Inverse folding.
């Protein structure tokens, strides 16, 4: 990957289109993962600051995966055009 490719990839990764779709996916998948991983604490109302921090971090996983995947797909499509 050249510097130009990296620059384009970063622009795509942070583009509004990718961020919007990744945010939607992160909300849905993150909520499911947070409930799977921290459901007992939520149901018992024993959520600590540490648990909240872990739940917030849980949302970053699907956001990052979705953003990286979208970036790779868009880059592949751009390379096919040229």
């Amino acid at each position: 990957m050249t510097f130009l490719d990296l620059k384009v990839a970063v622009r795509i990764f942070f583009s509004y289109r990718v961020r919007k779709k990744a945010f939607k996916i992160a909300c849905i998948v993150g909520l499911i993962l947070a409930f799977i991983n921290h459901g007992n604490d939520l149901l018992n109302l024993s959520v600590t600051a540490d648990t909240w921090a872990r739940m917030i971090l849980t949302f970053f996983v699907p956001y990052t995966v979705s953003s990286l995947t979208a970036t790779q797909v868009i880059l592949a499509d751009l390379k096919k055009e040229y």
